[in-house]
Amino acid sequence: MSPDPEKWLDEHGDYLFGYAFARLQDRGVAEDMVQETLLAALEAKDRFEGRSSERTWLVGILKHKILDHLRSHSREIPVTEPLEPDGEMEALFDERGKWKEGSAPWRDDPQSFLHHKEFWNTLVQCLEELPGRLGQVFALRELEGLGTNEISNLFGVTSTNLGVLLYRARMRLRRCLEINWLGEKPRSK
Q1: Which residue of 78, 80, 131, 187 has the lowest C-beta tally within 10 Å?
Q2: Using CB atoms within 10 A of its CB, is residue 31 exposed (0-12), middle (13-18) or buried (19+)?
């Protein structure tokens, strides 16, 4: 089966953009990555063997484009996330390091959220709100499944620093989802 480049943008453009945006949190860069993907796919269309769907093939190309972009830009832009305590996160714990309040109860089985479009929209919104490289690091680890060493090398940080960044990203996402998905009121600091 031969791919049909004339239909790619209409059939896969929105999906590819959403995929790129969730990982890059920058609309302009996400658009550029989709354009580069479509151009690369156009050049490689004769090598498409049909062992996967067109969308899967295009996402594979996009994933490589995103990683190449992050590799080149992570060398140019230093990671600015300090290792000092994060006041917002510290406000959630008491002096012994225990949670001041437990997490909000989930209204459904968390696995069922993966099938809710509204949940994904909220998650993407929360990812957008993550400062600095936290969203990119989280997306590469949790959405792409990249390993610690690969992400550490990609961003030029130690595995310890990466662990701190991932912890902060998870805590901020948790808080954002509690407020925006579960409807819990924000805690005072």
Answers
A1: 80
A2: middle
User: Do 61 and 37 contact (CB within 8 A), yes or no?
Assistant: yes
Report pTM. Answer: 0.60
Q: Which residues, 6+ apart, have CB-to-CB distance to 26 below 8 Å? A: none
CA 71 to chain centre: 15
What mean pLDDT do residues 99-106 have? 59
The C-alpha atoms of residue 31 and residue 14 are separated, in whole angstroms, by 10
Cα–Cα dist 164/143, whole Å: 18
| E-assigned strand segments in 7-109 | none
Total number of residues shown for the chain? 189
CA distances (Å), 16 to each of 19, 29, 65, 149, 157, in order? 5, 12, 12, 26, 28
